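Quick start: what a row looks like.
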Amino acid sequence: MIPLIPAKDRPDLGLKERLEDIGRMPDDSVILVITSAFDYFSVYVSIMKYLLNDLNYSGICVTINRSVMGLDIALKNNAIKTENLYYIDCISRTSSIEESTKSCEYIDSPSNLVGISIGIDDCLKKIKSKKIFLVFDSISTLLIYNKLDSVLQFSNHLINKLRKDKIKGIIMAIEEGNPELVNQIVQFCDKAIRI
């Protein structure tokens, strides 16, 4: 198990150093990024900008917290190049908000874990690059729609798939969320980073 260092005992590494930690990890690595609810979106945007703009990866974003329309606008407003980004939108259909786009797979609900897996496979078929990442936004939110055991099984399956396909995985988790979820998922990951 990867030890999580309590905030009071952690060295104060800045965001730049944490992003570089992510960048240095091999492409078949899975990183659990734990952040506060307050800092969540700014950390998310920083990770996306680093991977897409600085490292020139192609990517997949599984979004459970925001619709693809709102997320895409927010990323573009932060000068993030989204032309090599594909989305799996798990929330828009629950609100009857859906816009036809080639870069998005819509899933009917975050409770449809099989549909999320199929959506990831469909997006991977569209990506031609060898440098691919997947950001899962957020594993904590899945617990609103699914039981803990189902989320853990899904996470294990997803992480093994990312490793097999040599895809850099970033799984986002809310620090104030379910500690049992984080303590279990951290065991599947190659590294845990608190930002």
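That is the whole record. The first strand starts at residue 30 and ends at 35. The first helix runs from residue 15 to 24.
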